[in-house]
Amino acid sequence: MDDNQPAVHFEIPEELQPFLPAARRRARQRIAYDGTSTIGHLVEALGVPLPEAGPITIDGAPAEPSRRPAAGDVVQVAPMPRPQPVPLEPGQDAPRFLLDVHLGTLARRLRLLGLDTAYHNDMDDPALVVQANEERRVLLTQDRGLLRRRALWLGAYVRGSRPDDQLGDVLDRFAPALRPWTRCTACNGVLVTVGKEEIEAQVQAGTLRSYDVYGRCADCGQVYWRGAHGGHLEEIVERATRTVAAAGA
Ligand SMILES: [Zn+2]
Question: Tens of pLDDT along 43-82?
Fold first, then answer.
């Protein structure tokens, strides 16, 4: 790039550098400036989805993403603060989520923790944005293109390829209030506590002898009991509880 060309400089923190192209993965970024692009547009041109960017400042003064910088400006982009505040409606004590088609395992784990989590394995991008906006759900995805959609009210990039890592990332980011064992992992319905006599026909005799407390999904009728999958789910719940306690501290 010609050094005499008008340019804007960006400071990109380490947390956001993985979004940059591998060859440009460093803090200081210089972009040739045409005088018309907004800060938000330039941040996305660098590869960082705007929902991942925290507060933006120029020389320490807050700057909105819609602002046009001046040539020579140094724009500092902070990482999204953790825990990230999410606007909640009255009576709501944790964010609601919507997951894209590739995050089915993560969806079941969030439901296991009692988080209201919508997931369908056949929704295209425009439909995801519509549902996220209408139901005020945080859209969780690993698709940066989806996070660039202007109409999306609130989205977040999920870090990690293993479901354990993905869950840890979401819990660390939002530190949501958990209510384990209160939601159907299959359909997101609310579980209602039922007595043994009500579910005798649906559960094997061996299970009936071993467990006393059951939940039945109010939407799909699936019956749950704790211990159904050995200690694996208990472990997920315990780890999640610790992660949220540490993130919220
Ligand atoms: Zn259900």
Answer: 999 999 999 999 999 988 999 999 999 999 999 999 999 9
Torsions phi, psi of 43, nearest 5? -60, -45
Neighbours of ion ligand 1 (CB under 5 A): 184, 186-187, 189, 217, 219-220, 222
Please provide the CATH number assigned to the domain covering 7-79: 3.10.20.30
**Model's pTM, two decimal places?**
0.92
> For the domain with range 96-179, which CATH number is right: 3.30.70, 3.40.50, 2.60.40, 3.90.950?
3.40.50
d(CA 108, CA 184): 8
Residues 6+ apart with CB under 8 A from 125: 143, 145, 146, 149
Rounded distance from Cα 191 to ligand 1 centre (Å): 8
CB 70 within 8 A of CB 100: no
What single DSSP character describes residue 5?
A: S
